[in-house]
Amino acid sequence: MNNTADHNWKFAQCFGDKGDSDDITEADIISTVEFDQTGNYLATGDKGGRIVLFERNDSKKGCEYKFYTEFQSHEAEFDYLKSLEIEEKINKIKWCKRQNSAHFLLSTNDKTIKLWKIYERSVKHVADKNLDENNPTSIHSLRVPKLAHQETTVAAAPKKVYANAHAYHINSISINSDSETYMSADDLRINLWNLGISDQSFNIVDIKPANMEELTEVITAAEFHPFHCNMFMYSSSKGSIKLSDMRESALCDQHTKVFEESEDPASRSFFSEIISSVSDIRFSHDGRYILSRDYLSLKIWDINMDNKPVQTINIHDQLRSKLCDLYENDCIFDKFECIFSGNDSHVMTGSYNNTFHLYDREGKNDVTLQADRNAFKAKRMGPTKNKMSMGRPTSKNSQMGADPTDFSKKILHASWHPHENTIAVAATNNLFIFTEDMQ
User: Fold this and answer.
1) Which end of the chain is more exposed for a tag (fewer CB within 10 A), N or C?
2) Is residue 62 part of a domain?
3) Where is this region: Disordered (predicted)?
4) What is the domain-level CATH number for residue 255?
5) In which region does residue 428 sit, left (phi positive, over 0), alpha (psi from -120 to 50) or beta (all else)?
6) Domain membership flag for residue 132
């Protein structure tokens, strides 16, 4: 893999409706993006409960994708006991390691996780009938009819439904390196599942207090270590990341390590706890580092050093003076994801104005790209101190006065190809693919 700083990133493809933004329905908004382990397949989930899969187009040069299949993963439900509507929105998709010609993936909404099998099915038609049309009354004309291949279609079938194990909204699913187990996390609990058993799970983390009035934090994300199947981490709304070892006890209340940075009391404000909430965490592929994202920054932690991050990258520092306005329009609660590149040399996260940032691990290079639905081309803004200086005029929904940042356009979800410098980015109802120009 080449160094990001040595090559220009370019817009490669865009999937989705290119019409007027007023025509976009809530159901069409993409809510998760995920490459599989090979990078040959890409999945997106949306707020309407649909999953769309894309396949690498080998007939084209470079990294290009084509539509593979689409299916309805979740439907809207109603919990009559709690008088609660359960949205069909797909919160997360995780690919299982491929064992045969079929693909398997996990998808989840707020309450129910499903295991899907996606496979190619041969559609056949009768090519040779069992009667001789010239002499249909003759018994000697009877013969066994023959079937011939007509076309190959892609089918999706639910193999397992893992339900009724979460009282709160599921925010994460993570498949273990043993390829046999996975965990699911909601606001207060983390459960461990066997992929082959849908009616039983084990509670491995429970932070629910006896009295809910004493609740001070919630779980925001969770992930297994990339190759130590006994280790996992989870983050909290208080800005901490807890590393746990399942060999120590059945209920992982005692943490092996807690990664958190002490706050300067002088800078504490009403918004401190909100902006310090960790929205996403990722292990590096070598398992040595942890990447975390809070509202204003990215942090990289060494797994052997829990007292402070080895690197802090400020994303929205210029918004620090606008936190009151961001609180009023709810943008301060936006949950941005973060990603390591395939070789761990770079990190990526999203921002407003439909922009996203790529940083090298040394912090010397910041590439800002824009997923522009109108222009359908990348706008490289290059290394700059004021990363938002080329933003579009504020929309009527932003409520931020003359600020050039459009807060209605945001890159929350993205995925980095596991072996190449190719990135898939969700911008409202469009999927953008960016890749390096190798000229």
Assistant:
1) C
2) yes
3) 383-403
4) 2.130.10.10
5) left
6) no
